[in-house]
Structure formats: structure tokens, C-alpha cells
Amino acid sequence: MIAALVISGAAICAAAQNRNNPAKQNAREPAAREVTPTAKGERADDATYSYEFQKSDFFIRHIYIKHDAGGRGEISFERQGDLEPIVEPLALSENARSRITALWEALRFLDSNADYQSERQFPHLGMMRLTMKRGTRERTAEFNWTNDPNAKALADEYRRAGNQAIFVFDIEVARQNQPLDSPKLMDLLDKYVSSNQLSDAQQLVPLLRELSTDERLPLMARNHAGRILKKLEK
């Protein structure tokens, strides 16, 4: 009983010391509490980016891609004979988004007044427009041909993103309504993969797995999807 009273008294004394010395109490807090929280009111990057291609006598005469800093947005495109543009959601892969963001940063786009148009004009290739907006700042640059390596690489990235998004739309239409179109679409996809004309071919792996077993499609298209899938999985 005496020992219990001694222990109890020691505990009371220790508690009193802690109340009188808050610094000692704080020293015992776990390290996780020292992580600095996100500042109140701090916003994520509100930048928006867009790419536009236009050439009235091309089969796909107009493409417009717009996305946020996270790579999410939409694509619209018009083909010859279309009465209205087709609008589809767009989600760039993380690899594609990183490449595109790095190219915008390399151009220092909002801080620059560079003219990316080369001295020689190639209007038969169509007009390209790059636009970036952040907060109240906005800038657009257009060209039909450029010698600036970063501007060219950025336009190429968006062209690949357009190829991939339009293929996905077309193959889904084929699955639902026009399965006989699927073999030629698979031929086109194979060419895109072989010539690096897609934004991120790995994004298509789940879709190709579905296509390879979709009995609505001709056997030729299913087998071709399987071959492309094996190529991407190597």
C-alpha cells in the first residue's frame, strides 16, 4: 500500500511538472505533426492549354484540344461532310501530360512574344494555334510551319493525342454499329503504333484486351487487336 502511494504521488508530481512546462509536452508529440499543411486558400495550377488545327480541304478539317494542368479536358473534331463537330472527353496519360507541360514551360509561353512561324510559308499543311491561359494572362500563337524545336514538338504531341482520341471514338462506333469497319481501323492503329503516332499507346492496352475478345467484331479484327496487344506488352 505504501508503494502504491509512492507511485501515485510520483505520477501526480510529473503531471504537475508537465502542466507547468508545455514545451516539454510538445517535445513528445509525434513527428507526423510537424508536417506543414497546405496553406489555407492555396490553389492548384489554374492554367488551361489548347491546340487547334484547321485545314478546310483535309478529311479531318478541324481539331480542337483543350485541357487543364492535370491533363483532363476535351477534344472536338470535324470531318468532311459533318454538320457538327464531334466532342469527346480527353484524359492525357501522366507520361503525355508531363511531356506536354515540359514543352510549354520550355517555350516560356506566357512570358514570350516569339513568332514561331518560319520564314517560309506552307499554308497547304494547315494552320496550328497554341493557346495558354493562366489567371488573367492569355496568349495565342499560330503557324503553319515552325523551325522552333519546342513549338514543333508540342504540336506533334497534340497531333498524337488527336490520333489516339479519334481512333478510340471510331473503334467504339464500329463496335456498336459498324463492325465491318474494325479491320481497317486495326490496320490504322498498327501503323500508328509502329510509327510512334500515338500520345501513349499503353493507355490502349485495356481497350485492346476487350477488342481481342469482342465477338461483335470480325475474327480478323479480333486477331489483329491481339497481335497489337502482344506488341505493346513486350
Task: Note the main attributes of this structure.
single chain, about 230 residues, alpha+beta, six-stranded antiparallel beta sheet, 6 strands, globular, disordered N terminus
Can you put this structure into words, describing what you see?
The chain is of the alpha+beta class. It has one domain. Helix content is 44%, strand content 19%. It has a 6-stranded antiparallel beta sheet, with helices on one face. The longest helix is centred in the last third of the chain and has 28 residues.
Concise overview:
This protein has helices at residues 2-20, 22-27, 94-107, 149-176, 182-194, 205-212, 219-233, and strands at residues 48-54, 60-68, 72-79, 86-91, 127-134, 137-143.
Q: Spans with pLDDT under 50 lasting ≥5 residues? A: 1-43
The residue-averaged pLDDT reads 86
* Distance from first to last alpha carbon: 75 Å
Helix content: 40-55%
Helix and strand run: HHEEEEHEEHHHH
Strand order of the largest sheet: 4-3-2-1-5-6
Alpha-beta content class? alpha+beta
The global form is globular
Based on CA atoms alone, the radius of gyration comes out at 29 Å
What's the number of helices? 7
Assembly form of the protein = single chain
Main beta-sheet annotation? 6 strands, antiparallel
